[in-house]
Design brief:
28% of the residues lie in helices and 27% in strands. The chain has 237 residues and is α/β, with parallel strands linked by helices.
């Protein structure tokens, strides 16, 4: 049980991290989320790299790099599902975009609590949607994909990532208890493990034009990106 309420942890986290950051200042690496210059990232047990200043992890930095390079411009409307705290704070500081964050579980910083399978949002609302590590948590992912397509504007884009495996999608919706899902998919709240082609096919059936972006970087790259990573870019034509 946490002694400090979550809302207070969220509120004071930047101050705690600023103190931690003083021990990691340097010129070897740079976090593109907070622009902190580091002598090193914090290496987590799973091999991921954490920024001590803003708390971003590798996939978050890659995501922001994609958005900054290809999609970020004044006036866009952006819908973000269960955002990381570092991404939430980054976009909240930009007054020239309409940033809408949602988290159905209540575990993340967010402004709304939308059900991704039945969004209380009008058609053709958003220029850009971030759906990062969400779909594997949804029992009826086809409904969710259809809703993403519906609320996206024409020529809008949706950036999607999930854990990926080789071969076919691993999915058995008869496994409904947490322990069964943990054993089958490696996490209690996952309903499947996608293959990259399997997810692409489902998104295509929902109407999206789908492009798979593959990235490869050295383990010691300056921005702390994953060495190998796949991201799905979807467009509504």
């Amino acid at each position: 049980m946490t002694l400090i309420p979550k809302r207070l942890l969220f509120k004071y986290e930047p101050k705690f991290r600023f103190l931690l950051f003083q021990f990691y200042k340097g010129d070897n690496f740079k976090c593109i989320v907070c622009n902190g210059k580091l002598k090193k990232f914090i290496r987590l047990n799973d091999g991921d790299k954490l920024c001590p200043n803003c708390g971003s992890i590798s996939r978050t930095r890659r995501l922001l790099n994609i958005i900054n390079t290809h999609f970020l411009k004044d006036g866009i409307s952006l819908l973000d599902f269960s955002p990381s705290r570092s991404i939430y704070r980054f976009f909240k500081k930009i007054p020239t975009i309409n940033y809408v964050s949602t988290d159905f579980s209540g575990s993340f910083l967010s402004d709304y609590k939308y059900d991704i399978k039945k969004l209380s949002i009008e058609n053709n609302k958003f220029d850009l949607i971030i759906c990062y590590h969400i779909l594997e948590h949804i029992d009826d992912d086809i409904k969710a994909m259809n809703e993403l397509y519906r609320v996206l504007k024409k020529n809008g884009n949706c950036i999607i990532q999930t854990p990926f495996n080789d071969g076919d999608i691993q999915e058995d919706l008869s496994v409904m208890n947490a322990m069964g899902r943990l054993e089958k998919y490696g996490q209690e709240d996952h309903f499947r493990i996608y293959s990259i082609d399997g997810l692409k096919n489902r998104l295509t059936q929902s109407g999206f034009i789908v492009k798979i972006e593959e990235f490869s970087d050295s383990d010691n790259n300056r921005f702390g990106f994953h060495t190998n990573e796949k991201v799905i870019l979807c467009t509504k034509l």
